[in-house]
Amino acid sequence: MCTSPVRTQPLHMIHMSNHSQRPPAAARPENPALASSGLGRYRYLPKPVKAVYLAAPLVALGLFIIHWFSIPVFGQVLAGIPYYYLMYAVLGVNVFLGLGATRKDKRRAPPWYDYALVALLWVLIGFFLLNADDIAYHNWVVPPSGIIIAAAVAMGLLAIEAGRRVGRLPYAIIMFVSILYPLVAESSLLANNLGGVFYGVSFPLEEIFGSFAFGADGMLGMPARILGELVLGFFLFAGLVMGIGGGEFFIKLATSLMGRVRGGQAKGAVLASALFGSITGSAIANVAGTGSFTIPAMKKAGYTPEYAASIEACSSAGSDTVPPVMGGLVFIMVIIFGVDYADVVVAALLPSALFYLGLLVQVDSYAARHKLKAPADTGDMPPWWKVLAGGWTYVAGIGMLIFGLVYMRWGAITPIYAATVVIGLQVLEWGVKRLWPRSSGETRPPLRDSLERATRKAETGLAQTAGLINYAAAIFIGIGFIMVGLLKTGVAAGLAGWIIGVGAGNLYLVLFVCFLFSNLMGLAGLERTGYILLAVIAVPAIVALSKTAPEFAAYGGIPLIGINLFLIFYAALGGITPPVALHSYVAANIAGADPVKTSWLACRLGAVLFFIPFFFVLQPALLIIYTPWWETLARFALVAAGIWVLSSALEGYLIGVGILNRAQRFILFAGGFMLAFPLAWTFATGVAICAGTIAATLYAKRKHVQTPGQISQGTETPEPYKESD
Q1: Top-confidence residue, 65 or 578
Q2: Residue 494 is inside which H or E element, if any?
Q3: Of the four, 3, 55, 419, 450, which is 20 to 30 A from 363 by CA?
């Protein structure tokens, strides 16, 4: 979602300082954390504009709280159209000030035209607010005058430009197609070709822009509900926690847990990305935040630059789906289908665990196969319990978030409570340390220095929060055009029927068609747009089709959350699939690796990740909320075993067996897949294949060991690693 990242200071080092060698205040550089946030150009803004930039998320948060608790303002409750337009006015400022229009603009202060776009946005929103009652009661979907048409078109062009700054030209093209398609939806060409799938209802250009600017299908529909009703608290929690030191804590914890084992640097990278992603929900922030530390550590341990970068890219891809704070696509799902966010958090827990299990097994197998030992110099590495004790405030915040979401069902206000808990506990901890009697010879930094560090942390946290919101707002606003093009023309229903037809009415084939479509969109860097299209078009059809499948009769069909997570997992993997492969390119830039080789290697390392969505969507027990605990536990164990064998076969090493030759890898790959597949006959066949192959391999190895002068094919010393291996 960003372009051409530059190598900068690691995020985890942003708060380290030496108080005995502090430079004079006049010579002190700006907050170094802001150079590596990867979420905008805040550090280039003039100081007065910085104040506006940092104030925007706080103002939006205030509006959200007033709206959530229905607090009267001048005797009126802030809700509906006025609330949504106010949110766009506040958040739109930072979209144009924080996100550059060109690659050059991303690394300099905003040029004059960005300020002009902000001014235009405020004029338009002010005009809409003055006429909010007319919009609500007289329905301006068909604009009643030329001035209103011009205002709608101007608002639409601003939305396209905002989306282009994040999603680049392909996303802008998608929005333009969504605008142009309703103009020709009733053409005879569409009616007589392609089976009439794209034949729909046409309407004029002014109605397209009117529906976008004033209608329930446009910017006042799903995008407004996502921004105004759901995501703000989560972004605040993520930004503040990472800004005040949560990122450094998670990296240290992962390193302390994995640093003393075989392949510890790569395993630490996987675990750090999982922990980091559980808070940010952003793969790009994950690569930039953890990769700047984990990639150099992996290279130092003997991993090639391409391998180190691909591991980071794959593990960061899970950020969109690892609970409790998940990516923007989950928020879209919640709004479109009206599901409870807490149910999504619970349902995504085991699929995310399987995602990272597959990566950890591959990392371990690679280290064993290539004889990468555990680090020898771990004497200065603190034990995990000491690291955990140092970051207990962050753990408490996550605990509060999970408790509020899952048990109390507080909804979208929960992350604000959790952020308050983290900040309150940190202030309490600081106060206790300041007031606690000093031991002999102990020195403490002056109060002024402590307050300055706290101010810099708050600045970093707000800048991170604003950056996360900017990316979400820029993408979400343009979704209104896509929804108008799909829903008002009626083509969504036709496409749903077409997908069912391509799959010949077979549930498994329909899911495979959706898999292919998701990955094709991912190849072009349009994985998020692909999810939105499939969510509107395919999900209702799959739900209806699955209800007729006897294997899902006990569940009433495949659960709605399961189908959506199936599509979201594949959308998340779009960041590692070439030729766009944004996550791989960002990681390669940090590693100094070849980006093309990195993206292809990431696909190989992440190959097992492409099977996991099929395993959990066809086994609703893995979604926890639909079955008894014992059935969920049993299913998870079986799928985990299958993924273990799959991952080991892909990497060529199985614990307890050793190095595998090509034939053994192929057979165990098939056996592992069948072991994890939900049908009884496939499971039984998988058990037989895996058990037989492992037994035969062990027997052959023992036989060769007993034969002097011979070396088993399965135990030979591996050749130096090659990217194509």
Answers
A1: 65
A2: helix 491-502
A3: 3
Query: Cα(602)–Cα(435) distance, rounded to whole angstroms?
Result: 51
Residue 560: Cβ within 10 Å count: 18
H-type alpha helices, 592-652? 595-605, 612-617, 629-651
Amino acid identity for residue 42 in this structure = Y
Task: Supply the pTM of this predicted model.
Answer: 0.83
Query: CA–CA separation, 418 vs 426, rounded Å?
Result: 12
393 in Cβ contact with 429 (< 8 Å) = yes
Closest by CA position to 98, among listed 40, 163, 35, 51: 40
Q: How far apart are CA 55 and CA 462, in angstroms?
A: 8
**How far apart, in Å, are the Cα atoms of 223 and each of 176, 230, 358, 464?**
18, 10, 34, 21
d(CA 180, CA 159): 16
For residues 611 and 608, give the distance between their C-alpha atoms in angstroms, rounded to a whole number: 5
Q: At what angle do helices 232-241 and 447-487 cross, to 10 degrees?
A: 150
Residue 567 C-beta-side C-alpha neighbours within 13 Å: 31
List the Cα angle 646/651/655 in 5-degree steps.
Answer: 75
Tell me the sheet residues that pair with 653.
659
Alpha helices by DSSP H, 301-348: 305-316, 328-337, 341-347
Give, in order, the Cα–Cα distances in Å from 453 to each of 19, 27, 445, 456.
11, 16, 11, 5
Residue 709 pLDDT grade (very low, low, confident, very high; cuts 50, 70, 90): low
